[in-house]
Amino acid sequence: IVLTQSPGTLSLSPGERATLSCRASQSVGSTYLAWYQQKPGQAPRLLIYDVSSRATGIPDRFSGSGSGTDFTLTISRLEPGDFAVYYCQQYAGSPYTFGQGTKLEI
Amino acid sequence: EEQLVQSGAEVKKPGESLKISCQGSGYSFTTHWIGWVRQTPGKGLEWMGNIYPGDSDTRYSPSFRGQVTISADKSINTAYLQWSSLKASDSGIYYCARRGSTVGWFGPWGQGTLVTVS
Fold this sequence. Notes:
The complex is a heterodimer of chains A (106) and B (118). By secondary structure, chain A is mostly beta strands.
């Protein structure tokens, strides 16, 4: 399953709302999608799993939605620490696959 | 605190062998799958395979089956990723990560091991 993320780069300011898209080449159902945040020099960090469940410690500014082939990560009010690269991942079928990432920049 | 700690960076020559490690702590290591993920500038994040440390049941991505070996030693809460003959194309950052209890998301992640083959 190929995941395509858009846009490649998103330029926004602190306080604004970010909407990131992840489209799958075939359905991953209504459950089997996760989102990760990666900052330079760090490992990815789980933000959202099962499409819309926030991982432990993730603020409610982050939300996930979607089903089938179209999924969205929304960050409601950007803070300086949110500027990073975001990846989606599907686990509906093997092999698990990741999107190519969206860079969120100031 | 649940965490995974990986072994340090490696610089190897083509044809050499290598085994990197990932030690878990702060949770029940034997009852959670561990996955390995490669990150490269050209291909991004790629899932390589998973292992269940409790019984060493292992699943590989077709892209990596036969290219690497995933193993675990549950007595020391450690998973391994090894190569018998490295190629330059094996260069990258390798992450281990704990898989979700019943499904395939990953968290937490190890800090990554940079492997350079040159």
